[in-house]
Amino acid sequence: MKLPAFLRLAFAFVIALAVTGLARAEGARERMEQRLPALDAMKTRGVVGENNQGFLEVRDGGGEAAAKLVAAENQDRTLVYANIAKKYNTTPDEVGRRRARKIAENSSPGVWLQAPDGTWYQKK
What we know:
single chain, about 120 residues, alpha+beta, about 65% helix
């Protein structure tokens, strides 16, 4: 049985959206890898920290350059978390919180982290 034209078009549109979302998430991962050395240096200097939602926050002395880098990173993390959430039938917020716990575990000493209760601390 042949589907009506509007259903074929709707199906094609849904497939295109899914493929586009996956491609954007893959591009995000590549951009995140490229930013990693600069972000690690900023974390070491205490300029940025990892919050309890899986995102970066500018702390002290970062200026406009740090703010732009953090905004770009957080935008890509948002894409990646949404893609993971869809794959595992959960929410992007839950993915971010889980990622925050992993980031905290794997961070180097001296990196600023936000505890689940919202307080900031430096990893020892």
